[in-house]
Amino acid sequence: MKPAFAFLTIPSAMLLLACSKPADSASNAPTPPPVDMVAEGLKGYTANCATCHQVDGYGVSNMQPPLVDSDVAKGDPTLVIKVVLKGPAAVLPKDRPHYSNVMPAFDRLSDEQIAEILTYVRHEFNHDTPGITPDQVKTVRNQM
Ligand code: HEC
């Protein structure tokens, strides 16, 4: 039988823990993306990317490439952020495979939105590749 006071002590212990946690405890170690970033990223992906790359991320043959197992999507964070901010034509090598559609630049999206979308794409379509933070997007945007 559970003592009644457990219901009081557990929340207050959690509160104490939350308060004593140092604000700058973030480390550089890769951590799994927070669930809400993936959830928000799904919304952003559906609204901005899925018409071309499809809901399942497999694209449409000859029109737009798959994002599933895409070397660009799962590769260097700076490159994939640039692809979204500037559009692939401005960023990727000239000898890349040709697709009949043209992807616009998405620099109108916020740092948060781009981070969420790319976190979703990397988590969902590329075997849990580490996510992208709004700070990473901000840094790349400021360098452009
Ligand atoms: C109008 C259609 C369209 C939309 C909308 C679109 N894309 Fe694309 N995307 C393309 C096409 C076409 C290419 C290939 C273009 C090229 O190589 O010049 C591409 C390429 C890419 C690549 C590089 C893939 C690779 O393996 O080379 C990434 C990453 C990408 N898109 C992500 C996104 C994301 C994220 C969004 C939403 C914010 C998005 N795209 C929206 C059409 C689109």
Give a structural overview:
With 144 residues, the protein is an all-alpha fold. It has one domain (33-143): Orthogonal Bundle (Cytochrome Bc1 Complex, Chain D, domain 2). It is 50% helix and 0% strand. The chain is built from seven helices and no strands. It has helices at residues 6-20, 35-48, 50-53, 71-74, 77-86, 111-125, 134-143. Helix 2 (35-48) packs across helix 6, helix 5 crosses helix 7 (134-143) and helix 6 (111-125) crosses helix 7. The longest helix has 15 residues, at 6-20. It is globular, with a radius of gyration of 20 Å. The model has no long low-confidence stretch (mean pLDDT 87). It binds heme C.
Task: Write the H/E string, N to C.
Answer: HHHHHHH
Quote the distance from N terminus to C terminus.
62 Å
Helix content percent band:
40-55%
The CATH architecture would be Orthogonal Bundle
What's the count of strands?
A: 0
Described by strand count, sense and barrel closure, the largest sheet is:
none
CATH class: Mainly Alpha
Q: In percent, how much strand structure appears in the residues?
A: under 5%
Number of helices: 7
- Alpha-beta content class: mainly alpha
Which parts are unreliable, with pLDDT below 50 for 5 consecutive residues or more?
none
Task: Summarize model confidence as the mean pLDDT.
Answer: 87
Q: Give the CATH topology.
A: Cytochrome Bc1 Complex, Chain D, domain 2
Total tally of structural domains: 1
How would you name the CATH homologous superfamily?
Cytochrome c-like domain
Radius of gyration: 20 Å
Report the principal-axis shape: globular
Bound molecules: heme C
